[in-house]
Amino acid sequence: MINYSQATDRKWQKRWQDEHLADFDPERIDKKLYILEMFSYPSGAKLHVGHWYNYALADSYAHMKKMQGYEIFQPMGFDAFGLPAENYAIKTGIHPKDSTEQNISYMRQQLSAMGALFNWEHTLATCDPEYYKWNQWLFLKLYERGLAYRKKAQVNWCPSCQTVLANEQVLADGCCERCGASVEKKYLTQWFLKITAYADELLDGLKDLDWPEPTKKIQEHWIGRSEGSQITFKAEKDGEIVKDEHGEDLELHVFTTRADTLLGVTYLTVAPDADLCTYLISDSERATVEAYQEETKHKTEIDRMSTVAEKTGVFSGSYAIHPITGERVPIWVGDYVIASYGEGVVMAVPAHDTRDFEFASKFGLKIKEVIKPVSGEEATLPYTDDGLLFNSGNYDGLASADARKKITADLATKGLAQEQVNYRLRDWLVSRQRYWGTPIPMIYCDKCGMQPVAYEDLPVLLPYNVEFKPDGDSPLKKSQEFMECKCPKCGGPALRDPDTLDTFVDSSWYQFRYVDNHNDQMPFDREIVNQMCPVDVYVGGAEHAAMHLLYSRFFTKALRDMGMLDFDEPFQRLIHQGLLLGQDGQKMSKSKGNTLSPDSYVEKDGSDILRLYLAFGFAFTEGGPWSDGGIKAIVRFIGRLESLVNEVAAYPRIEDEDKILPQTAAEKSLLHTVHYSIDQVTRDSERFQFNTSIARIMELLNEINSYKSDQTAQPELVRYATEKLLLLIAPFAPHFAEEAHEAMGGQGSIFRCAWPEARPDLLHLDEVEIAVQINGKIVERIMVPSQSDREGLLAAVKAHPGFPDWIGEKTIVKEIAVPGRLVNIVIK
Predict the structure, then answer these.
(1) pTM of the full predicted structure?
(2) Would you call 521 exposed, middle or buried from its count of C-beta atoms within 10 A (0-12, 13-18, 19+)?
(3) Which residues make Cβ contacts (< 8 Å) with residue 245, sequence separation at least 6?
């Protein structure tokens, strides 16, 4: 007799551990399947049911694939550095190292309670010096290749988190993605990783990825490739050509995708925060421009680029010299131009650009038409489509596409233009003014300048005794024992870099460390990583589309070019889980008090009940609101299944399943349902459609019970169907399935058994049930031959004894027949 409970969980978790069920056998690497879930943050919150939703159901997929003969590698670790742990420490007064280690220990217990195939021999925690040593090692390798560099730049600053944010960490409304505070701008000297060096490859590689299309679109937009021309303007101020810091003529390099409109330029606009602004402000306009710069400093890029925001700007006091006509056109300072796009200056063609038109209309600037529709119709301004050029001198009559090429080519002969590709993507800012992260392995010497830490001196350890409460400066600056060191070049006194690395660096390559996590000579062995990677199936949130997933792709390509691996992409197939909501229908959060811990559910009902509810209650890629009523329904379902197993355990077994042939209609129905369920559960689970998989299993249980109640039921067939049901439910209820398998005399783990395969000859019934509708309302259900065509269906319906009564004295005006489903007779 089986009676599933948490004790069942503990029994089988111990047995699986003893039998090394989750271990990876390198001798079977040809059958390797690397399944990985995005690892969790061990902050004070520990695991909630949302983590279970991600990890347990991805593990159900792994269990199924193991039964299909794959050698599963499914490691689990902890994204242990970063703001969640540090903010928790600030709130509670507990040191981040102490709280993180405690939470990792607790979360590991929670993860173990799932009964998952996690390979704990290959675990890692990013706060472990044995891990972040290799963060530093890789940073130095990137530095050697020119892919890590330091510069002063305008950065996103979160006044609440007291740290710099990468562009990707600023939400669309200009707020911090961590805390929601409004992000400000600051000029700081920071470290960047040159992700833009791989912009084209990152974009081109998307087409070959088995990833959700929306995620690929997000990356495509974020990279933002534009093909056009760079056109050079000179500048004049107070009657003289403007010079740069070297005494050379200042050149304004403008990027445009519409060189055909060049003769329609009536002004230029420079970003208020662009370096060029310094050279272009005349003395007469300085006070006005500097006041405007101060005003716009507090606006986010999102606000500035909004198409609905009111356009603002001031005259700089200088003029640009048109490269074709030599005409002087005014240079304005406007916040709708972003300093980081190109060189922070754009040419304005108000007759043919909506934004420029609005700006020119507001400030009374000249509007000159140079493009007209090919049709000859009069254009409404701004006319932004391609057309034919006019008012353009020698280029009159050219089509836009031809004019773009000719104008660029003509100016190129004078050194004033060139074809160019621009990107929205910016280099990845990785400096953080926080404590709980990987120290940047650089040293600053008054005599020798900036020097990398020697490889043999890694890791640069994070000190324990540091005042880490944020005050706008790097906490490590306050640690004398950390900051003071010797220059690796001259041996004289020097200082360490006080910043830590963005924790997205930690997660950009962790998938490779998992496979060789005890290597103390290298981040990983090339041969091993080439055999084990890329990750075959990666599961995690869609919110990481333009951050972690993009950064991982960049790291993979950079590591390939360093000769450390031989492939191009980190993750072959990507699955996004949906979002679990609270019972109030709102996103779960501690501030709303609607988060749910899995622990109480596991303790009360057992982990399989929770896993089954998560599988059945939601479409995996969509999520939805939590319901305790759904948990109760699963408890009843398992109770019915227990009753079946307890009864069937004594039934005789069919020795040769291949020879099973149905003899009666009831047997046909049962065997069809068994094999249809195998077919559908296999197909749907491969697609991560677990809710429909569980629905099929429930239908199979109903069919077995229905058949079993028939007086002619064969016990052998009942047992056969029950055994197949247990195999199907095993990935979703691993502890229960093992217990039932053992109760029915099964030998060894059920996960050593082969996943069932549907028999084609039993997948289709000779007869199928169809609905008969009159004017769309069902009046009867009848059995018809499964291969019936439209005429056969209509004939069967009209031959039914009830047909005359359904029609009565009315006239048939339309007959609709859908083979295998329904017949609808429309009468009037």
Answers:
(1) 0.87
(2) exposed
(3) none
Q: CA-to-CA distance for 324 and 416, rounded, in angstroms?
A: 10
Give the closest residue to 432 by CA, choosing from 225, 650, 175, 165.
Answer: 165
> Helices marked H in 457-593 — which ranges?
480-483, 510-513, 526-532, 548-561
Cis before 459? omega within 30: yes
For residues 113 and 46, the answer to whether their CB atoms sit within 8 Å is no
Interatomic CA distance for residues 160 and 178, integer angstroms: 10
Q: Which residues pair with 624 in a beta bridge?
A: 580
Residue with tokens 């067939």: 717
10 Å Cβ neighbour count for 543? 12
Distance CA 23, CA 316 (A): 68
pLDDT along the chain (828 residues), means of 10: 94 97 96 96 81 96 98 97 83 89 93 96 97 98 98 83 75 78 84 97 96 96 95 96 93 97 98 92 96 84 70 96 97 91 92 96 97 94 97 97 98 97 92 94 97 98 89 88 96 97 97 98 98 98 93 98 98 96 80 82 96 97 93 96 96 89 89 96 97 97 95 94 98 98 96 96 82 94 87 92 92 92 94
Tokens (6 digits) for 33: 């399947």
Q: What are the φ/ψ torsions at residue 479 (nearest 5 degrees)?
A: -100, 105
**Burial (CB count within 10 angstroms: exposed 0-12, middle 13-18, buried 19+), residue 180:** exposed
The CB density around residue 69, as the number of other CB atoms within 10 Å, is 11
Q: Tokens in use for 653?
A: 């077994």
Main-chain dihedrals φ then ψ at residue 547, nearest 5 degrees: -120, -95
- The angle formed by the CA atoms of residues 169, 506 and 577, to the nearest 5 degrees, is 65
Task: Report the half-sphere exposure of 224 (CA within 13 A, side-chain side).
Answer: 10
Please report which helix (H) or strand (E) contains residue 230, including its range.
strand 225-237
List beta partners, residue 399.
Answer: 388
Spatial separation of the C-alpha atoms in residues 799 and 779, rounded to whole Å: 15
> To the nearest 10°, the Cα dihedral for 14, 16, 20, 24?
-140
Q: Determine the Cα–Cα distance for residues 148 and 818; give it in Å rounded to an integer.
A: 63
Distance from C-alpha of 611 to C-alpha of 607, rounded to nearest angstrom: 6
Q: In which order are the strands placed within the sheet that holds 777-785?
A: 777-785, 767-774, 822-827, 812-818
Closest CA to 795 of 764, 778, 819, 828: 819
